[in-house]
Amino acid sequence: MPKSDLVLLALDDEEILQLFDRALTAASYQVNIARNQAALKKALQESTPALVIISQNFNDADELEIAKGMLERFPTMPVLLLLLQDSPEAIKKAIQIGVSDCLYAPLRIKEITKTVENSIKRSNRIGDWTRREVKLTTATLQQRVDELQQLDTVFEHIEDGVIILDEQSNILLINPAARRDFGLWLDDSVKGKPVSEVLPHPDLKILMSENINNPTPHDEITFDDGRVLSAQCTPIPRIGLAITMQDITYLKQIDRLKNEFVNTVSHDLRSPLTAILGYVDLLDRVGPVNDQQREFIHRVQNSVQSITSLVNDLLELGRIEAGFDTQKEVVPLEGIIRYSLETVSGMISDKKLKLDLNLPDEIPQMRGNPIRLRQVFDNLIGNAIKYTPEGGAITISVEVQNDQVILRITDTGPGIPPADQPHIFEKFYRASNVPKGVGGSGLGLAIVKSIIDNHQGRIWVESLLGQGSAFTVVLPLYKQPAAPTA
Ligand code: ADP
Fold first, then answer.
1. Could you tell me the pTM of the whole model?
2. Which of 107, 192, 381, 402 is deepest in the core (most CB within 10 A)?
3. Does residue 409 have its Cβ closer than 6 Å to ligand 1?
4. What pLDDT shows up at residue 40?
């Protein structure tokens, strides 16, 4: 047991002092002696002992006050109080100020060394434990600091712009990419300020106000210099909102080129077909044609018409996929359905079809592109009429459930074989059982699917061979935007 620990004796009775000195020296402790307060002060200035023993009435002073002062300066240093007379009051006070133990006269050497040894051991154990805990906490803290520094580095260097807002739409964090996007200087102090004040961009305002109603909002932020950002708003529990932005200017440019190409091709493909049809129509006016020639003219007209309709469908699909007519507005769904039905009412009566229309008393408004939505109904109702044999029945029903409108078009046509069902929304796909003489390009449902996708909706088919088909379309309803928060 290494006993080189220094024990400071603050004792003024020479006899007791000698006893302690002998006892502790014999037990291999280093001993320092202070016979008065000045000596005690000096000893504590020169070295920090492993333990101090102070006697009651040391140097006629209040030993507890002295002990208190020492413990304030060296909180982990054990202080032993030597009681010369029995005094429960002194013991109580001693415990209150944090004295480690008391020694009572008369004293035995063994008792002195044992008490000193135990007190120093306990103090060392507390010291070891404290050091271990401090080390552990420091390591954990360092790990957290490292992680935060890593996150900070990612946040600072990420190419996407990121803005974090609190629940009152004040800026908590904004990374250099977002600053660059909005032309903020790096040393601009924006933390804690309302985002609407720091970044008063109208598109950003719209994005954030829509977010309250829409769980996965994304929108574009367009700048006067032609840059376009794709922005997403994600609510973060207990923090607020994260806005992430990517520069999609180059994608927009590609899109523009694609649109220009579609427009040019549209014109170049349609013009010669119109000319052919025009001249074929004129043939019987420039001279008499025999029956066979008339039949041939009729076939040419049919073929040109079907190529024209194929080209129209193809161009239409190209325009939809290129993002034409994507502007959305509040549309009256019922009006669109009724319009669509009006245009096909002649075909319905020609085929003697029974039409059942089940509309709710009121269809809430939805947000969409009226031209495109009209195309959806034209195609689905058109197919139901086209594929249903004479005398069959078509049912059109609309239901509103939660925040969705569900449209179902059911017919008593030939149905679609199960193997074909997963493919009918693909371009140019026609089912294996298309009745003879029923024309089509296989593009109608691809157009429908593209439009529904653009409206964040869903479409599917349920069909039984020989019994009929039911096409279901689900579209999200329009929700009134709440007043912007920023
Ligand atoms: P098409 O021009 O051939 O009608 P669509 O893309 O509109 O092309 O439809 C794809 C295929 O799906 C059709 O060729 C047909 O086989 C099948 N189909 C679509 N609607 C119906 C329906 N109401 N009844 C039976 N089959 C249908």
1. 0.53
2. 381
3. no
4. 95
